[in-house]
Amino acid sequence: MLTIESLNQYYGGSHILRNVSMTVPEGKLTVLLGRNGVGKTTLLRCLMGVVHAKSGAIAWNGQALTKLPTWARVANGLAYVPQGRDIFPRLTVEENLLVGAASKKRAPSKVPEHIYRLFPVLEDMKARRGGDLSGGQQQQLAIGRALMSEPQLLILDEPTEGIQPSIIQDIGCTLRQLVEEMQMTVLLVEQYYDFARAIADRYWVMSRGEIVAGGEGADMDADGVRTLIAV
Question: Rounded to two decimals, what is the model's pTM?
Fold first, then answer.
């Protein structure tokens, strides 16, 4: 389980994260919803050590992460798919994927077959440069690259942004497959409510740097989550 306790972060004089406390159950898909600018991406960066929290605690399965550098968090089983994908446009698809395994003590010399089973389009285009792929294909590449480190916890920041509906559906199916067949834990930041509701086991809602609601994914409609993220 991922536990976050009383996390605070500031940018200049702005209090971005305000005593954020939440849990992400192991082997479940948890969605964090909220409007732009409420602190969701900052929270994910704190989880990965890209930004160090000013106060509070982060732990994964009992292992304290708060003071660890990013590479050590990856070694402890975390992987991150950032907003905007951040692939290497001049590297081939295959090279981009292999970069994702660089943290492993014995990095593979080729891409494991299960990555290509999850994303068949990547095998078809493995010799093409990442920058030549469509936005949806680049998003699949970014997720595949994160999976190359064989994470226990996969963290994604708005993977549906700017992507055609057919690819959004494919990504949703893949995330559910990771949870149900590979027992992976997934934390997904999302604004697209219908997508989140369709795949979430649990949810949290953030507003102005604070967690304002949470519950079971099946209860999102009854809990009025759509209204919470629209105000």
Answer: 0.93
